[in-house]
Amino acid sequence: MTYNGNLCVADIGNNLIRRISSNGGTATTLAGTGTSGSNSGAATSATFNYPMGIADNSAGTTVYVADTSNGMIRQITGGYVTTLAGMFGAGFLDGTGSGAIFNYPEGLALDASGNVLVADNSNGRLRQVTTVGVVTTLVSGMSSDAAVVLDDAGNYYLTMAANNIIVRYTKAPAVVRNFLAGWSSGYADGTGTGASFYQPYGIVFDGTDTLYIADTHNNEIRQIK
Question: Is the overall model pTM greater than 0.85, yes or no?
Answer without folding.
Answer: yes
